[in-house]
Task: structure prediction
Amino acid sequence: MRVLLFQEEDMWVAQCLEYDIAAHGETVTDAQEAYALAFVSQVVMAFHLGEEPLAKIGKAPQQYWEMLENSLRLAAPITAPDADEIPPNFMFDPAQKSLAESWIAV
Result:
């Protein structure tokens, strides 16, 4: 997957191209971390609902693909963590008021 990082006003945005999932933060790191949480949330919610993860999420709008074509590329791509670096499974508790309150480690 490709994630486009760009600054929009005073925030950094992380926009996935293959799936229309985005997040933002005050710094690049904040945007990356928020994106990781948003992405994992989509996958976890799909499992919770018995659906195939990401199957209902289309690609990002064309404007982001064009931004990628006109951007500078990193010298070295960012790779996914090794399996032993991935945090434990989580489940969603729908009784909580917000997504942030609902993560429960299992």
Q: What stands out?
A: Residues 92 and 103 are 6 Å apart (CA to CA). Helices lie at 28-48, 62-69, 99-102. Confidence is low (pLDDT under 50) at residues 97-106.
